Amino acid sequence: MDDRSDDHDIEVEGGIHAYERKISGILDDGSVGFQQPLLARNRKNTTSQIAIVGANTCPIESLDYEYVFVFPNFTFLLFWKTETINEIRLLGRVAFCRVIYFQAFFAFAGCNLVLATAAASLCAFIAPAAAGSGIPEVKAYLNGIDAYSILAPSTLFVKIFGSIFGVAAGFVVGKEGPMVHTGACIANLLGQGGSRKYKLTWKWLRFFKNDRDRRDLITCGAAAGVAAAFRAPVGGVLFALEEAASWWRSALLWRTFFTTAVVAVVLRTLIELCRSGKCGLFGKGGLIMFDVNSGPVLYSTPDLLAVVFLGVVGGVLGSLYNYLVDIVLRTYALINERGPGFKVMLVMAVSILSSCCAFGLPWISQCTPCPIGSEGKCPSVGRSGIYKSFQCPPNHYNDLSSLLLNTNDDAIRSLFTSRSENEFQISTLAMFFVFVYCLGIITYGIAIPSGLFIPVILAGASYGRLVGRLLGPVSQLDVGLFSLLGAASFLGGTMRMTVSLCVILLELTNNLLMLPLVMLVLLISKTVADCFNKGVYDQIVTMKGLPYMEDHAEPYMRNLVAKDVVAGPLLSFSRVEKVGVIWQALKMTSHNGFPVIDEPPFTEASELCGIALRSHLLVLLQGKRFSKQKTTFGSQILRSCKARDFAKAGLGKGLKIDDLVISDEEMEMYVDLHPITNTSPYTVLETLSLAKAAILFRQLGLRHLCVVPKTPGRPPIVGILTRHDFMPEHVLGLYPHIDPLK
Fold first, then answer.
1. Going along 108-166, which residue ranges are E strands?
2. What is the rounded average pLDDT of the residues 269-274?
3. Residue 737 gets which letter from DSSP?
4. Are 408 and 458 in contact (CB under 8 A)?
5. Taking residues 263-270, what's their average pLDDT?
6. Contact predicate 216/141, CB 8 Å
């Protein structure tokens, strides 16, 4: 194997075939491995440089974190437009219910279908990478994986408007995950100095045009997205720390905190401006979206046992949810890979199914008299509200339609409320749980921007309130608090986060007295769910084939050393190299890093000078800083170059080898590589444990790790380790006998 970059092929005799079978999901017996990365059989993938981005197969690379604040105003657009369209759609629903119900259904389903088709068309034809929540992609990017168009301006555009149309179309999805992706896209746009393609450039941002600073900006952007979505600034910081970022440092803590503080101030200002009702439903509830602060929280031993029960149920249901999402995503991949038209048709089919369920299920629910003291609010006719009359007589409401034919925020508010424990019948809560649980699984994976937070909160809140109703005679906790604990348990069971979810829920509900119970239920649900599978975002990263590096080494790596997973022949350059040799190497390979060797007469013996990156070599060749003699002239190159010449280019802007025009005479000339060589690369001995090398590689955020010989008298470098050399598919492909599953 040639280890000079992230784009090497596997050339080890006997290991390539096992590796190809594993990475394509085909087992030794010819069957398809269900837990393998989601790559279809007809896709040629002989390397680990391919992953699923959106529904497309795209090449991926690693980021260069080694050295050689996001303003959230955009999030208001997503909030305001989504809520405004929701309000128009909901008012239309009420009006339709006054006419013939058969016509009302077609009007209701037609509106949803148009909005769904618009969202699907944007994703299918403009930016496939915008489909889904985007959190797995952001998490992979912050781990050092650069995949095409994950954070492109077109992805940002589709993410914003696709989320607006998708949420307004009545799908069981949320806007919270897409807003995390939106914040990351905005941060990336700032980090690359804007976009030349769309004539949006800012020269003062060129200082951030390196992977390390861009990584910090995108971390701040992800935190800003959570803070804006949940109005939880502290929760946003903790989400970035616990779930999104792979590397953390003290300076990044205050930067993300500053970013989310700006989010809170801007949101507060916009909410105050919108109190007159000019912004639709935006700003309802202020900074506290679901206020359940109902006074003292008293609980006894039976209540603690009920909380433990909720945690166990949440863990089991959460792990089952992840398993079913896995199956659905793999099934949809077979449809989506057939083309954009099939993606749109799949979205349309799910939209019709969602409309049929949302409009049809309330017919089997009984009408309920309006609660005492709710005059003027029940039923809510001609406006948004939590008491929907549907087909009921005056002073009655349909409790199931109040959940199904409502905004997600109002539905959660209804479930969290403590006004009346009999507000929702037990049968209604059971039907709504099944509806949200099943449709949440079916909807995630279609070609629209879709978040998982809201479906999971809705499902958890419904079964939590159901448990509260059943335990009402023996419990001191009201049903609203049970609903909150149910949402926490299901969140913990699916996403496997603890600290950040706890703080987000407390900021959402303004009930600090529930802190001990929320902590307990999150810990129990996560522990139970971890016994079955991984968190949903980790699971999706694996399915997409993204080479994510965990913060720990696999146990079997302790039986191997660094030289076991590197192979030759190794392509390297001399410090003063012929232009034709460099051009040929760049033309014939797609490697991104090349060792540079100091050789006589410049040194007494061969020694490793460092690593030269492909992008820097292209800049050097483009400048034609050549010499006819094989001598060192690095000082002249340094005087003629500027630091910004070697800054990381934005998406699709970098130099390509085909862009260079070099004459035959120049091919015979020489170039000094020392000025562009990283002369202090990280190196390890060839006898270092592969487990230690993996931990070092991950903790330092490396792209290349040089392996040097232990004994003198040999070539100065044995090979180069990249993240793909640590992937289980590669290691176990070379050494299948150490596979723990066998």
1. 145-147
2. 82
3. G
4. yes
5. 89
6. no
Nearest to 580 by CA among 662, 473, 463: 662
Residues 6+ apart with CB under 8 A from 475: 299, 302, 303, 306, 468, 482
Q: What is the pLDDT of residue 148?
A: 78
The confidence score (pLDDT) of residue 419 equals: 61
- Asked if the model's pLDDT at residue 354 lies above 90, the reply is yes
CA pair distance 270, 268, nearest whole angstrom: 6
Question: How far apart are alpha carbons 102 and 353 in whole angstroms?
Answer: 16
**Pairing mode of beta strands 719-721, 367-369:** unpaired
Residue located via tokens 């949420």 = 167
How many Å apart are CA 229 and CA 619, to the nearest integer? Answer: 42
Which DSSP string corresponds to 435-503? HHHHHHHHHBTBSSB-BSHHHHHHHHHHHHHHHHHHTGGG-SS-HHHHHHHHHHHHHHHHH---HHHHH
Q: Could you give the percent of the chain with pLDDT greater than 70?
A: 78
Q: What is the CA radius of gyration of the chain?
A: 28
List all residues 6 or more positions away from 30 whose beta carbon is below 8 Å from its beta carbon. Answer: none
pLDDT digits 0-9 by tens, 131-165: 999 999 999 999 999 887 888 889 999 999 999 99
Interatomic CA distance for residues 123 and 116, integer angstroms: 11
The phi, psi pair for 201, rounded to 5°, reads -130, 145
Backbone angles phi, psi at 184, to 5 degrees: -65, -40
| Cβ contacts of 327 within 8 Å, gap of 6 or more | none
Residue 82 or 356, more confident: 356
pLDDT at 39 over 60: no
Q: Which two tokens stand for residue 117?
A: 């088709």
Give 269-336 as a 3 state SS string: HHHHHCCCCCCCCCCCCCCCCCCCCCCCCCCCHHHHHHHHHHHHHHHHHHHHHHHHHHHHHHHHHHHH
